[in-house]
Amino acid sequence: MVDVSAKPATERVAVARGRVVMAPATLARIQEGAMGKGDVLGVARIAGIMAAKRTSELIPLCHPLMLARVAVDLTPAPPDAVEIEATVKVAGQTGVEMEALTAVTVAALTVYDMCKAVDRGMRIEAVRLVRKSGGKSGTYEAE
């Protein structure tokens, strides 16, 4: 890992987004609560939060961080998608971009897993960092 011991601890926030595109009928079933495996959006939210907390175990050389806040929001986007946004906050010596990206990715994979029996053609798309603040490199806003 990179030595961050000389860096000051600052408040750092990262926001990542992605989406799962599916058949309109699959989204309708999610919204109706009619998937056989249960509450898709609720389970995916918890999976994303848990993944953010364990990013250092999943991504080589990531620092283990004491996260101050993790929020994962999943929003149906008719006619055929679920939008996912993760916000991760820490007061520390290194950023939380990887934690936000991991949260979105795992939440998307959870949606896929819970719905694959009815729609194997789903696509996970556009996972990206949209905003970050704090640290030496300052603020980033995606276009």
From TrEMBL:
<comment type="subunit">
    <text>Homohexamer; trimer of dimers.</text>
</comment>
<keyword id="KW-0501">Molybdenum cofactor biosynthesis</keyword>
<dbReference type="InterPro" id="IPR036522">
    <property type="entry name" value="MoaC_sf"/>
</dbReference>
<dbReference type="GO" id="GO:0061799">
    <property type="term" value="F:cyclic pyranopterin monophosphate synthase activity"/>
</dbReference>
<feature type="active site">
    <location>
        <position position="113"/>
    </location>
</feature>
<comment type="function">
    <text>Catalyzes the conversion of (8S)-3',8-cyclo-7,8-dihydroguanosine 5'-triphosphate to cyclic pyranopterin monophosphate (cPMP).</text>
</comment>
<dbReference type="Pfam" id="PF01967">
    <property type="entry name" value="MoaC"/>
</dbReference>
<protein>
    <recommendedName>
        <fullName>Cyclic pyranopterin monophosphate synthase</fullName>
        <ecNumber>4.6.1.17</ecNumber>
    </recommendedName>
</protein>
<feature type="binding site">
    <location>
        <begin position="98"/>
        <end position="99"/>
    </location>
    <ligand>
        <name>substrate</name>
    </ligand>
</feature>
<feature type="domain" description="Molybdopterin cofactor biosynthesis C (MoaC)">
    <location>
        <begin position="1"/>
        <end position="135"/>
    </location>
</feature>
<comment type="pathway">
    <text>Cofactor biosynthesis; molybdopterin biosynthesis.</text>
</comment>
<comment type="similarity">
    <text>Belongs to the MoaC family.</text>
</comment>
<dbReference type="InterPro" id="IPR002820">
    <property type="entry name" value="Mopterin_CF_biosynth-C_dom"/>
</dbReference>
<dbReference type="InterPro" id="IPR047594">
    <property type="entry name" value="MoaC_bact/euk"/>
</dbReference>
<feature type="binding site">
    <location>
        <begin position="61"/>
        <end position="63"/>
    </location>
    <ligand>
        <name>substrate</name>
    </ligand>
</feature>
<dbReference type="InterPro" id="IPR023045">
    <property type="entry name" value="MoaC"/>
</dbReference>
<keyword id="KW-0456">Lyase</keyword>
<dbReference type="InterPro" id="IPR050105">
    <property type="entry name" value="MoCo_biosynth_MoaA/MoaC"/>
</dbReference>
